[in-house]
Design a protein that fits this description.
The protein is mainly α and 119 residues long. 84% of the residues lie in helices and 0% in strands. The model has no long low-confidence stretch (mean pLDDT 92). It has one domain.
């Protein structure tokens, strides 16, 4: 699962960067706040990838777990909002699903590596 998670982190980081660029190209109302969120998505994926590569310490592990939970919630929120929207945006479904899966795999990988007592 680790190689899949690493590829998914690469995809999510690229998706976050793409979303940030598109927000600044299109400049729809409220784009600045969404740009910050998009950069956070990319940073979370990069942080998780870094953790997987360097085997971070316990404090770093906690940060990665909290960030993974946040992107899972963001992915769920995006898909729920998409299901209630009048306009279907396929990229929202793809990226939202990727956020949920990446967050879940991050939790699975990090909890598998160390017993719960060291979290």
């Amino acid at each position: 699962m680790r190689p899949i998670l690493m590829m998914l982190c690469g995809f999510v980081a690229a998706a976050g960067a793409w979303l940030a660029v598109m927000e600044n190209v299109l400049k729809h109302e409220g784009y600045a706040g969404r740009t910050v969120m998009d950069v956070c998505i990319a940073a979370q994926a990069a942080l998780t990838l870094l953790f997987l590569l360097v085997h971070g310490r316990t404090f770093f592990r906690r940060i990665v777990l909290v960030c993974a939970a946040a992107v899972m919630l963001l992915g769920i929120s995006a898909i729920v909002r998409l299901s209630q929207s009048q306009h279907f945006e396929g990229f929202v479904l793809v990226i939202g699903t990727a956020l949920i899966v990446e967050g879940a795999l991050t939790w699975q990988q990090l909890l598998k590596r160390q017993p719960a007592s060291s979290l």
